[in-house]
């Protein structure tokens, strides 16, 4: 089951990150987020894709090879199911928790997402 599934099922925009710590950090900043159990090497299951059907999904993988591989696998699984998929790489941090801990804000995150959306 996806972490925080009831919230996920209510929200039109969902952040997908690697761990519960990152989900909670995004929630502290007013965003709805989820992850699956098992970390970067855990299999992404069809029921996870189904739970995100028709939603805008923002993938923020951990900044390492397993994280990027996981993000790519989830993006492939969501193609044709999510209404929109945005992948955001945080080059100066290992994950979204570290990024916020370095002093970045909700507004900066939204600006980064807008820049990615306009670049694609």
How would the blueprint of this fold be written?
Layout: H1 5-10, E1 13-16, H2 20-28, E2 33-34, H3 46-51, E3 56-59, H4 65-78, E4 84-87, H5 96-101, H6 106-119
What is the annotated CATH architecture?
Answer: 3-Layer(aba) Sandwich
Describe the strand arrangement of the main beta sheet, using strand numbers. Answer: 2-1-3-4
Q: Report the uncertain regions.
A: none
Named CATH topology: Dna Topoisomerase Vi A Subunit, Chain: A, domain 2
Query: Percentage of helical residues?
Result: 40-55%
Number of strands: 4
Q: Mean of residue pLDDT? A: 94
SSE ordering: HEHEHEHEHH
**What class do helices, strands and sheet pairing give?**
alpha/beta
Tally of domains: 1
CATH class (first level) name: Alpha Beta
Instruction: Give the biggest beta sheet.
Output: 4 strands, parallel
